[in-house]
Amino acid sequence: MKFGMRKPSIRKSIAARTSVKRYIRHSLGLKAPRGWGWLTNPKKAAYNRIYNKTTFSMFDLFKIFKNK
Asked: What's the CA gap between 13 and 5, in Å, rounded?
């Protein structure tokens, strides 16, 4: 498990937004509602919850400095 700042990957962020799987899922409306990850894949949902609480992105730092 990672702790601290995540390294941004431009390639991965573009790939996630332009994937065929995402396009099909969004166009057919096959997405589960927000918060239903525990039903669809509980192991992944638990991992993601811990990961998101123990790491932060570079963009979160910009938000902190912007608000001060």
From this structure: 16
List the domain range (segments joined by +) for residue 45.
4-67
pLDDT, averaged across the chain: 86
Q: Which helix (H) or strand (E) holds 6?
A: none
Token representation of residue 46 = 């638990």
**pTM, whole model, 2 decimals?**
0.64
Residue 2 DSSP one-character state: -
| H or E segment and range at residue 65 | helix 58-67
Q: Which residues contact 40 (CB under 8 A, 6 or more apart)?
A: 32
Domain count, the chain: 1
